[in-house]
Design brief:
By secondary structure, the chain is an alpha+beta fold. It has 2 domains: about 1-125 and about 295-305, Diaminopimelate Epimerase, Chain A, domain 1 (Roll); about 130-290, Diaminopimelate Epimerase, Chain A, domain 1 (Roll), CATH 3.10.310. It is about 20% helix and about 45% strand. The chain contains 6 helices and 18 strands. It has helices at about 30-40, 75-90, 140-145, 175-180, 185-195, 235-250, and strands at about 1-10, 20-25, 45-50, 60-65, 70, 100-105, 105-115, 120-125, 130-135, 155, 160-165, 170-175, 205-215, 215-225, 230-235, 255-265, 270-280, 285-305. It has an 8-stranded mixed barrel with strand order 1-2-3-4-6-7-8-18.
Length: about 300
């Protein structure tokens, strides 16, 4: 049987930047094992599979696989999948909705379509779950996972902490851009520490603050997930969303709206820009949104052996 696919680079405005994503269309009839094998074959950080929704008021069911496992939610797969579907609708001359509603393991994910004039240019997701925070983690654990001295883990705003808005990450602030550039994943430390922190934690997101830019708060970041077959990810929307939610909740004002720009992937030669917005009222986080531009790369057809 044949299945169409499209690949896109997400959180970039040009090919060969950002985070690659494969979107498998017409996924109805594929088994979970087949989806996992296809994701391993592409060997991108994630591959998505588009199926009919269980509720006709929603756009689609979207299943997300890393090379090793299925995950309930992820950032760049939502942005890239929405971009692919919106471009297909536009090419067919159909009217685009303002946003898509994707059914996923973490819940319903709203994704707004971004345009440059009449051209689809990207998408912006709203995190499907409220922020959940785990216990603070010994800075030495984060330092070991990042191959850094413990003195280069910043703790003034928060100690390393597990946080999630749909997918959990260990989040750690580092002291300088130089420290971030020197960081490397230590597989032995990841194997030793991460599985015991909280259910589902298999990655660390490290960031450093940069000076604000015209009212926009700026971060530089790297994400490592060797336990999931991803030594480093060039752009991580779900970890970014969790981090922005955490920083917004920790900020002193009870009422706050923030704009964010996150740079990731520079050290990998795949520069990415993730744009975020957060708000809280009376100390309660109202939303976290992450979006960006996308670039189409290639289309093709998978030849799937029914016995595989």
């Amino acid at each position: 049987m044949q299945r169409r696919y499209t690949t896109v680079d997400v959180f970039t405005d040009r090919m060969f930047g950002g985070n690659p994503l494969a979107v498998v269309l017409d996924a109805l009839g594929l088994s979970k094992a087949q989806m996992q094998s296809i994701a391993a074959e592409f060997n991108y950080a994630e591959t998505t599979f588009v199926l009919p929704p269980s509720d006709e008021q929603h756009t689609a069911q979207v299943r997300i696989f890393t090379p090793r496992s299925e995950v309930p939610f992820a950032g760049h797969p939502n942005v890239g999948t929405a971009y692919v579907l919106a471009r297909a609708l536009a090419a067919a001359g159909k009217t685009l909705p303002e946003r898509f509603q994707f059914e996923e393991g973490a819940g319903i994910v709203p994704v707004r379509i971004l345009r440059d004039g009449k051209q689809v240019s990207g998408a912006e997701l709203t995190a499907p779950a409220p922020l959940t925070r785990g216990a603070e983690i010994d800075p030495g654990i984060a330092a070991a996972c990042l191959s850094l001295p413990v003195a280069e883990i910043a703790v003034a705003v928060h100690a390393p902490q597990v946080a999630s808005v749909g997918l959990p990450f260990l989040i750690a602030e580092v002291s300088t851009r130089a420290a971030l550039a020197r960081s490397r994943p230590d597989l032995a430390a990841h194997e030793k520490y991460l599985p015991g922190l909280a259910a589902g934690v298999d990655a660390i997101f490290a960031y450093v603050r940069a000076p604000d830019d015209a009212g926009t708060q700026v971060l530089h970041a790297r994400m490592y997930a060797p336990l999931d077959g991803i030594p480093e990810d060039p752009a991580t929307g779900s970890a970014t969303a969790s981090t922005l939610a955490l920083l917004t909740e920790l900020a002193a004002p009870k009422d706050l709206e923030c704009q964010w720009r996150v740079h990731q992937g520079d050290e990998m030669g795949r520069p990415s820009i993730l744009l975020g917005s957060t708000a809280k009222r009376a100390g309660v986080l109202q939303y976290v949104r992450v979006g960006g531009r996308c670039a189409a790369v290639m289309t093709g057809t998978l030849e799937i052996d029914a016995a595989s």
